[in-house]
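tool_call: predict_structure(chain=1)
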Amino acid sequence: MATTRESNRQNLIKLSPLRGVFGYPPSTYVSDDMIVNSMPVLQIYPSLPVFQSGLTLFRIQDAWDEYSTTLKSIGYEIADQPRGPLELAFIADSFPTESFSNDYGESFLQKFTDVASQGMSEITQMMGAREFTEAAGKIAGGLQEFGSQQGGITGTVVGGAGDLIQKGRQGLESLRKAASNSESAIGQAFGGGLDVLNKLMAGHRVDFPVVWRNAGFNPNYQVTIRLYNPNPGSLRRTKENIMGPLAAILLLGIPGSEDGKTYTWPYYHRIKCEGIFDLQPAVITNITVIKGGDQQQLAYNQRVSIVDVRIDFRSVFNSMLYDRSNNILTGRPNLGSYIAQFGEDANRYYVKRNQMRNNAIARSGVNIAANPELISLETPDELAQRNALETEKNNGIRRRQAEAIEISTRTRVSTEDSSKQAQLVAEATQRGITT
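tool_result:
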């Protein structure tokens, strides 16, 4: 075993998928950007549980080093992820969903008031009795009549039972009437309680409101990662595109053994898809490997060219909480982190529009040096800054133009006023000479 592991380490296959993410189709050099932008990416952080005080019992701690070492012992190494996580692009055919539920049930008062047995309820119905004392009177009368007719020991016993029931009924009736006729509030309340009990024992029901029992958080997460092998005739390409990635994925969800005889739990995880969900801690409940994919793609040498891997995972908790005490809930599903995940931006994965244009121009073979206007290497922030400067510049130009127009108008008005004044002086002078 040790020799095999040492040999695997010496002949490591370095796994370098497109953009460091397993699950992307082979590069086409034409539509890579569109493919990347259409596939969400899953981030899985292998972790180990660490005990902590409190009712959450444990938290998870990063275990990428152990995970990476184990993967190397199998013969593979993820070249572009020295510190994790494992990144998987999945097909968005069954999008993740969550459901939140509350369980309500009958209270203990409901059970307490259901004191009448099913048999007693049916007997009172058959006798047409609305109250237990009424039914008891009819039963006692029947037993007394049967006892008198039967005679002998049997008749005596049956008649005695009827007498006993009759006395009990009469005692309960007397007590109820006495309490109801009492002038004290306690006595009247006691009488009302006996009246209700009399009806309940005859099969009456009280409809109490249901009470909350528990809450449920049921996330339904299943993703499909498609591994492509464009050259199944090559053993090395098969290792790089199928065997290595499959080993990395299966290592996330299968138990481990240290002695070859016993085995223990697999890794816990933090599983995140920016903008969609963020589970910690999470566990993988199922991994399904479909060799050849749905299309059963096999090469002539019976090596698969496609492998579909379906992963089911869930949170280790069955509820989502909000915090009434303004403390930060960490290490479990909570409302704050659930809402915050929708604002996350997976900018590490998608190709921005400006870069897509640059890539398309570069692939087209256009001479960029002769056509510099076709390409722009500005980042979105730089573009926004340049647009702001252009806007400010244009506003300054328009402001100066308006000031020039205003000065010109004032100058023209002043000139016209001076001309009119000179004309008036000339006319006055002319009138003086004539006189």
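agent: Residues 20 and 81 are 7 Å apart (CA to CA). Proceeding to next step.
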